[in-house]
Amino acid sequence: VWLVDKNVEDQKSCTHLVDAARLVESGELVAFPTETVYGLGANALSDEAVEKIFVAKGRPSDNPLIVHIGEKTQLDAVATDIPVKARQLMEAFWPGPLTMFLPKREEIASKVTAGLPTVGVRMPDHPVALELIKQAQVPIAAPSANRSGRPSPTTAQHVMEDLTGRIAGIVDGGNTGVGVESTTIDMTVEPPMIHRPGGITLEQIQQVIGEVAIDPAFLTEEEEQPISPGMKYKHYAPTGDLWLVSGQEDEVKAKMLELLIEAKEQGLTTGVMVPKEHLDYWNNHALVNLTLACGSLASLEEVAQDLYTDLRRFDEEQIQFILAETYPREGLGLAVMNRLEKAASHRIIKA
Ligand code: TXA
Ligand code: MG
């Protein structure tokens, strides 16, 4: 683990980054901070290096990776046939939490894209990430640096929990900023389609390119859907059983109490995750073993920053039954709710 201060003006002089870059260049895996979450990086031009990512994460090999570039001009070395709208989004949001799917160049290892003709590209807004890519002199393929299925890492400590002994090194640049992953958008279809809501909001994208399609998969709000075993899609999930409770404030509180009583009757350890405005009520509550604040009703940015750390904390304390409040599906709330729903296997209870 190399400690690197992201506030240092001149990252170039950092010998740790030079060491980390040499490892990437030579085909090893290095975890590094971005403005969203930590990434697990490998040389995107080498199938052999990229293969190691799938092994270290336990990731299915049909799930493609995002390629990270250090400057906008590097885009043409990764993708071809770049439409005008993609250039417009790049100018508006790079460096930043937006990933665009574009036709892939042959030089990009086929393992990166899981054999797909398109490649996801982004330029991260983090001085340490940018300098690492520049020093490595190759584009860096990087998924989030968690074991597959676990919440994404927002600190180097999280990466250590998941990947110690499986990778060559971690560049520790402190907490990431945004806290949820980049927005992904397919630029090869018209209108372009958002597949994953993230750090750049739908509203921001619409302002630049107008009409945008949305993958219907992340807009449906299901209620108490019984889940057949084969359909159970666990992602970003804590080990404990997570349920979301939505509705009007007093009714949410009443519903949560009712569910917590049931859980306690079954002898389960319990946790609640609420915006900090509701913390006082649940703190030291007899029915709850661990109460965590997840951001504030006044700031979805804070919610996004707290989310993955909170989900991991429930695991650390071995909480078996967890209730979380929901957030408005606007701005960053769309990304927050998408991650929460997946973590809860889409179990939402209407209070
Ligand atoms: O913020 C982020 O995007 C972080 C940091 C490290 O950059 N990375 C990240 O990567 O979240 P990952 O692998 O955890 O998520 C990438 C998502 C996956 O759902 C993957 O299936 C999708 O993007 N993806 C990547 N390339 C794709 C492609 N060519 N076509 C369709 N989906 C793609
Ligand atoms: Mg991921």
UniProtKB/TrEMBL annotation:
Keywords: ATP-binding, Cytoplasm, Nucleotide-binding, Nucleotidyltransferase, Transferase, tRNA processing. Gene3D superfamilies: DHBP synthase (3.90.870.10), Threonylcarbamoyl-AMP synthase, C-terminal domain (3.40.50.11030). GO terms for molecular function: ATP binding; double-stranded RNA binding; L-threonylcarbamoyladenylate synthase; tRNA binding. SUPFAM superfamilies: YrdC/RibB. One of its GO terms (biological process) is regulation of translational fidelity. Pfam families: Sua5_C, Sua5_yciO_yrdC. It catalyses: L-threonine + hydrogencarbonate + ATP = L-threonylcarbamoyladenylate + diphosphate + H2O. It is found in: Cytoplasm. Its main location: cytoplasm. The keyword Hydrolase does not apply. InterPro entries: DHBP_synth_RibB-like_a/b_dom, Sua5-like_dom, Sua5/YwlC_C, Sua5_C, T(6)A37_SUA5, TC-AMP_synthase_SUA5. GO terms for cellular component: cytoplasm. Its EC number is 2.7.7.87. Belongs to the SUA5 family. Required for the formation of a threonylcarbamoyl group on adenosine at position 37 (t(6)A37) in tRNAs that read codons beginning with adenine. This is Threonylcarbamoyl-AMP synthase. The lineage of its organism: Bacteria, Bacillati, Bacillota, Bacilli, Bacillales.
